[in-house]
Amino acid sequence: MAKDKMHKFFDNQTMIIDNLRSIKSNLQEIEEISFFDPDESLYNEILALIDQAKGSDTSSDLAEVIQKAKVMEVKLDSWFAKEGIETLELSWPEL
After folding, report:
1. Is the pTM of this model over 0.90?
2. Is residue 67 part of a domain?
3. Does residue 14 lie within any of the structural domains?
4. Which residue range forms the structural domain that includes residue 77?
């Protein structure tokens, strides 16, 4: 049973990191269109969240990353919406 929990944890961790990389790609796309993040604060925050997710040892650590990432996702989605670009909502693991 412990192996199943461990596999689920690593699957969730991988999914979160993949989602963060998608958010990073979206931000890079926005930056190519305009000067949305001129001080690179969001970009640096995404990189920090990726590192935090990679270093997470517990599901509660991952849940904290998810909360922060969802806020960032909403910010970027609202910017895309203002530009008339539709985006897909990312699927986050249930912890």
Report:
1. no
2. yes
3. yes
4. 2-82
